[in-house]
Amino acid sequence: MIRQDYKWLTDIYIAHRGLFDNKNGIPENSLPAFTRAAQHNFGIETDVQMTKDGVLVVFHDDTLKRMTGQEGKLSDKTYEELLKLRLLDTDCVIPTFQQFLQAADGVNLVVEIKNHDRIGETEQKTYDMLKSYRGHYCIESFNPLIVRWFKVHAPEVIRGQLSCSYNGAPFSALKRRLLAQLKLCKWNGSQFIAYDAATLRDNKAVARFAKKIPIVCWTIRSQEQFEELHDCFDNMIFDSFIPERKDLEKLRNRDE
Predict the structure, then answer these.
(1) Over the stretch 222-252, which tens digit does the pLDDT of each residue have?
(2) Which residue out of 16, 40, 116, 230 is catalytically annotated?
(3) CA quadruple 131, 120, 35, 255: dihedral positive or negative?
(4) Is the pTM of this model over 0.85?
């Protein structure tokens, strides 16, 4: 069941880390990727974390190596230090969250707050910046405590629980079960579930939640995978292909 006040979350497909093409000079979570997604009228999913000196930036990995070639954790660097780095040998730098919001240009946003230990400052800063965004937005996280922060401190913000099977994760069996089976979602006030495509169809907990709240699938990487799984979710986060615009067709048919 999809409440009307956030029906927008399921209306338009969502580009994973922007409409990127890492092999052809448009890095993930870069300003060109965000601009490209907005120009194609896709929603955007992105990742937020905070630098050592308290600047919110958009970057997926905990470490810098894969995207910049440099060693170290992002959270151990100041923003000035990050400005010296380039994404995948392009001219692109790691954007600030504020720069991301400007590039997104009003399209729907799904903002993942990356896992961290000291919950509060990152969430408050993210919330404060999102309040001035002129489009729709929601937050999501793998950390149930981060989702709950928004339930308690910013209940008007749509919030969702990210999850997956957690097979092989370095957690206790109990923690894996609690996370994979979505046992904390009522407690933290999750209003949608974002679940991994690899095990979406087989997860009974997802099926139960699907009767009450939207299911967003991550990450769909081909039209064939979309066709195979589309009956299991209300919207998708995608990358590695440009999907057929069945979302826009659905919107046009609904408006006629």
Answers:
(1) 999 999 999 999 999 999 999 999 999 888 8
(2) 16
(3) negative
(4) yes
